[in-house]
Each structure stands twice: as structure tokens, then as C-alpha cells.
Amino acid sequence: MLKGFRNILIKELKELIRDPKILIGIIIIPIIMFPVLGLVIGYAEQTAIEQAQKTSLLVVNNDGGNWSETLISYLQAAGAETTIVNNLTSQQLVSQGLLAKNNATQFVEIPQGFTENLTKHFAGDTNITAVVNVYGIFNIGGIFSNIGSSGITNFVYSFNRYVAPDVLQTTQSSIIKGEIQQNVDPATLSSLLISQSIILPITIMILLTYSMQIAATSVAMEKEEKTLETLLTMPVDRFSILMGKLSSSALVAGLGAITYLVGYSYLFGSITSGVSTTGASLDLAALGLAPTALGYILLGITLFVTLLAGLALAVIISAFAEDVRGATALVGYMYPLIFIPSFALIYIDINVLPLPIKAVLFAIPFSQPVIASKAVIAGDYLTTILGIIYVTAFTLVVMYIASRLFATEKILTAKLRFGRRGSKKTAEQQE
Amino acid sequence: MLSLAVDAKSLVKQFGNIRALDELSFQIKQGEIFGLIGPNGAGKTTTLRIVSTLIIPTSGTATIFGLDTVKQSGEVRKIISYLPEEAGAYPNLSGNEYLEFMAKFNTKNQKELRETIEEAAKISGLGERLKDKAKTYSKGMKRRLLVARALMTKPKLAVLDEPASGLDVLHAYHVRQIIKNYVKEHGTTVLLSSHNMLEVEYLCDRVALLNKGKIVVEGEPDELKTKYQSQNLEEVFAKVIGYA
Description:
A: 2 domains; two-stranded antiparallel ribbon; B: Rossmann fold; six-stranded mixed beta sheet; 38% helix; 26% strand
């Protein structure tokens, strides 16, 4: 154990836990913030549904009768851009890559016997109904990218009401990693995966911002009160001072993470139950959509290294501040780097982005937990491991700079000043 | 002959274009109270920070009981204690907790730790208030706590930057008494800086007048007053730098 580390750690914990500002941040803020986020997400969902209704539709006509022609005409008249394929099984269509060729993410199969069944129904045998099969590619990329299938279903329902009630039934199936999973609704899957695709990124965003704030305040307060100056003349390893600060901030942040996760899961429990009614019985692991044990471990490591990167960065930044207010402001400038990629990646699939944007997103360490949360579900461990290596290297560089700062007089003399025209320059403290 | 507690040789400290110290040299004998006096920006704090291993001189050397402040900074930190000007304590720790936290760096076992904290409690004279959080202390109380912290480990050299600045008469008197008595009792060497000439005359065996990073005059207070035919050190200082 490093000399003095335990002593520093205990002192740091006492100081942090007793600060009312931290308690407010951990308990009061979430109560206000989560409902606001709920509204934002609801709006995004609505937009996604509207967009899904405009997407192109592939129709496989295995029936060839009059009623199938009527249904297709109805879909076209309702505004769906349709491409028609005849006599193909659903798996053949997927295997031949026809969805990608037609820029479609879903298709409707009108099975053989469709016209026959409807004709019988209208002839008086009302027990006979017809079936339309709807297939959608399940996309792990963005949370609302799977709502398209519900749009198609709405068209079919509307046709049902148009011809006669209770004459048509639909089945929902998902295409997951190139395989058709019969009777698994992509929209239901999507809502089930909310925990992986939203809760984690948002929790890590909040966790990062608060822990960075705590770490920065801790260093700046020591500078402001000149307790750091005193500490640096004590027979204590300076790396211990740095590690004590980072570790205590990480522990307090961990406590905050648990509070957030509990509150946030509670909030999203209600949203999920609104979207999904039958999904609870689906086995995500059997469908290959739940992280494996290795996936969870990799995700945990990603979260840890990202948190450490943020803390180390905050310590460095605050070393350049003259006081707590300055440190808070300087750390605040880092927030867009946390919020923008994380929010973007909740809704957008990184794999569909152009390479330069993808590279920029990957280079921001704070994107990694979100990228990893999707990658582990998709079984893409390479991306996750590369992310961990990258963030670890980033953290080591930042920690090296931080330890260099603590080892030299720069920790006391370095200052970042903002000139009248916003230009930055370093100045040295002297008397 | 007593060994040298501090030996500063040709200290230069450059901050960008500003030369904070300009070939500054002085020596302090063991058990002496040595005062640096001078206007703001004269280089007092910079000198104290170099002696305390906080900053590195651009050129020149400073040794503390033969230990180099740059090459042997770790060893120097074991025998010195530094009190920055207008320093604070940790607001959410009690006085006792603060003393315990700081004492742990210099003590080897529980007995030594307990004795050190008891010593600090005695020096500070804060009694039961040591159980309260430091944020409830007045400026004077906080300074007494910090002076006690600086002396409790019986350092060979105590470096005190403006030990009684900004305090009311009674608190300032108490702090000066602490320093004077403690040095007499334990033979600690003290290097202090001050604006207060009364304080310096009362406390210091020898003083150095600093101006623009250089020592302009150095000696015992009485010796300087006689030499410059002055009533007090304030007058000496004014005459030396040409204000009077």
C-alpha cells in the first residue's frame, strides 16, 4: 500500500460525504431531470413512428389472387412505397439480401391461400380468417429504429377495418442477425432492450458529470484553502494524494450510480409497460440479444475505465483553476463531450455513420460505454475490447500528466486565464 | 559552533519575465527565529516555498540541515513544517480530525499519534471547540489550529508565512506567544515572513529586509535600529529602500 494513501482516502471521503452540494446533486437533481428526459424520449419516439410510416415496403405475394392485389393497392393508396416480389419464402428473401437491395427494413408476406380464405369468409364462413405475416429487421443500433413494423401493422389493421372487421390477422416476426425469428415482434424486443440502450448511457452520463464535478471541486477547494499547499510539504507520496482523490471520488460516484439506477429503472418501468404488453415472456438470451457473462464483464470494465478517464481529466483541469468556481466552469466545458455522443448514440446506430464521424465518436472516451452496451448485445467483443484498450491508454496518458502535475510546482503555479477576447494563456503565480 | 539550519545560496526564481528572486542568499542558525520582511511582491512567499520544497529555484540552492530542497525533497519534508499565508483547514472535518489527519503523516504508532494530537490541543488552546467542524471556527481560531498543526510534530524547521496576519489583537498575541514559547522549549528553528514590524521585533532573533527579490539589509533588530538610527524596524526599512 502506498504511504499515506489510507489516511488521505478516509479524509477525502469525510470531506465529500459531508458536503451538502453533493447530496443535492445525487438526490434532488434526478427528481427534476428524469421527467424532463421522459418527455424528450417520448417526442423522439413519436418522430420515429412518423418516419417509419414513410419507409419503403417490400411485399412478397405468394398468393397471387384478387384479394392480395386489393391489399397491395390499398397499401399503395395509403402512401406506402411498395416493391412487389412474387413466390418467394420469407427466408429466401432474407438470404438473397432483397431487403438491403430495396432499401427496406421490413416486408409483408401475403401467404398462399389468402384470397381463398377471404373469399370463403365473405361467402358466409365467418370463422375463416386470413393471415398476413410482417417481418422486420431487428436493429440494436438505435432505440426507435424498430418501430417501423408497428407502422406496417397499422396499415394492415386499417385494411382490415376497410374490408370487414376481424377478417385479417397479422403475425410479427423479427430478422435478427440474418435469421428469421418467427412471432417475435421487433417493437416489443426494442422496448425490452431499453435498459441496455438507454438506462446505461444516461446513467454513465450523469455519473461522469457528477464525479468529474466532485473531483474538480475537491482539488480546487484544496487549492483555494491552501490545504493542498500544506499537504504537498508533508512526508507523503504525491501519487497517493492523487490516487486518494481519484478513488474517493469514484466511490462517492458509485454510490450516486446506485441511486440513479434505482430511480431511473423505476421511471422506465412505467414507459416499458406502456410499449410492451406481451414481451415479458420473450427470452432475450435465447434470441442472442442479451449480453453474455463475458459481455457484462467487458461492459463493466468499459464503464470503470471511462469513469477513471473522466476523473483524471477533471483533476488535471481543476489544477489549472484558481478556485472552486473556476474549476466548476472549466469542467463544465467538458460536458458536451459527454452528452452529445452519448445522446446521439442512444438514437443513432454508429455503424451507419460516415467513417470520419465514426472515428470522432470513437475517439471521445465518453462514447465508449454506449458503444460497448450495443456491441456486447450484438456479440461484437472486438469493438468493446478495442474501446477498453483505447480508453485505458487515454486514461494512463491523462493520469501520467496528472501525476507529473502533482509531482512538480505546476500544481500550485499553473493557471488558465480567460482573456477579454476569450483567448487562453497560462500565467504563473508569484509573489 | 551550531550547525546551519538553512543555507540559501544565490537563489533565483524566474516566473516568465518576472524575476521573483534575484541571487538571494541567507543563513539561519539552529534554534534561531529568522524573519523575512518586505513589501508585497518582494519575494518572501517565493523564498518560503523554495525552502519548503514546494517550488524549485531557477538557479541556486537551498539546504535544510544539510539536505538539498530539490534533490532530497522527501527527506526535507520529514523535518520541516510549513504554514501557508491565510491557509484554511478542511471545513467538514473537526479540529481534532484535522490534527489527526495531519499527524498521521509524521507519526509511527498510535501512542505517538495520540501524544502529537494532545500536544497540538495544548498549543492551540482551543479546548472543547476542537470537537467542532472547522467551518464553524473564526479566523483566529482557525489560525491557532493551523499554527498548532505546524508545531505539533516538533519540526526541526518551522516555515511560517505571515503567522498572525489578519488576526485581532488577542488572537495575534496568542499566536506569537505560541511561537515564542515553543521555540524556547523545543529549540525549533523558525523561518517566518511578516508585514508586521512589531511582530518581527518581538519574535525574531535576526531579520532580513527583502526588496525586489534581493536582501537589502540583514541583522539583529536592535543592531539594525542602532545602525540606521531608527526608533523601529519600520523606519529602518523606509530608510534602507530610500523612502525616508
